[in-house]
Amino acid sequence: MKRILNLLLISLILTTASLQAQAQEKRVLTLEESIEIAKERNFNMLQLVEEFKIAEYNLKAATAQLRTQINMTLNLPQYTESIREKADSTGVFFPIKELNYTGSLNIRQPLPTDGSIYIQSGLGTFHNYYSGTRTGNLNTRFGFNQPLDAIYGYSAIKSNLKSAQLAFERSQKTLKRMELDVVYMVSQYFYSLLQMQRQTEINRLDLERQTEANDIAQNKYAAGLIREVDALQMEVDLAGAQSAHEVSIMNQNSANMAFKQYLGIDLSDSVEISSELQYEPVSVDVERAVELALENSLTLRQQDIQMELQKLDIKRQKTMGKVRGNVDAFFEKVGFSSAYDNLNISNSIDASYRNFIDRPFSYGVGLTITIPILDWGHNRSLVRAAEARMKEYNYEKINSERSIETDVRNLVGKIYTNLKRLQLLERNASVAEKSFDITLKRFSDGDIDSQSLSLERDRLTKAYNTHLDAFINYQLSLADLMRQTFYDFRNAKAVQ
Description:
The chain contains eleven helices and ten strands. By secondary structure, the protein is of the alpha+beta class.
């Protein structure tokens, strides 16, 4: 019985371990795969996608303002019991008890000049229980409204549409810039994790070399070939190598968690990155890079949009100081009927229609003009302030253009500097490896002491680390140039 229970317990442990292993998704990611995951799952990216959708919907709403709008209102029915004051008297009220059935249809076509053409049609019957009467009405009106200042001055509907278009364009460029920022940030996290992984490998190799050196030292000490202090120094160096290896493992785990968090993947997933320290020298035309940076700069385009919106604001403010007018016109047909309770709803509507046919047309037209005479310079001051703001935006753009050009030129110079440094340190690491192998053999042969071996080991570790730093700096500087110019110089293609 005890044996059966032990078997069941072992089976349960193995099943649980298997389920846990299945729950943790294992990923071996390249830089390109990491970038694609971040574009889909990074939280900042997801938020910006929703901002882009908001701008897109606002643009659709602004465009819809120019289309025909149709609304229908129905009261089926509306019952009222109340009191009402007589229109031709003061303080005289009479009771109300009525049942209404009404319906109206409104068709409105906005005009690009802030005006509108509309059709209003209504039908209703009103049953007054106190007077015992039923009243019906039928009406149709064709109308036109046009603010005159919107023709020669500021048009609100055009300005709203323009603002929505600019906001949509800005959101598009912001989303694209965010994608490139994500590429750069993923590259930073990726190479940071790569650096920690390689650092762990370097420290592991260093620990293996130091272990081998310590074994040699202990054997030579036991044979009386070296001093005790040299053997003790080797033990101290071995402990230091062991500590450095453990610290590098801890740093690698921290970098791994930060990498997964930025990508937006589950923190419990097992992630490893796949990358070789290989590179190709990239040729960058600095003048072309500056041109692309100025052409695709989100900052400059945002400043252009800001100035375009400011132009609209100046135009609106100037219109406030000009003569304004409004034209209204309508043409309508109305029919009424009124009878006592023996007239049902159908007959009331029929009587209203006959009256609608017989009654002559009604019409109206009007012109309203507003002439500013004296405002003590209020509007003119506001216009001057808006124009001064426009100049401020222009100066800001000029300064931004110069800053962008300076940054790109410095960045291209940095890329070439990083490349030269990388090529130099690559050769230096190769030389340091050969030098350490020679030094280790000389220590084994007894030609040098432990201090010389320790110095050579430190030199090799430093060569590995500086080469790794140079490789990462070169890759990040290329990624930074791509997000500045919207152009991939590595593959000679524009970023879509």
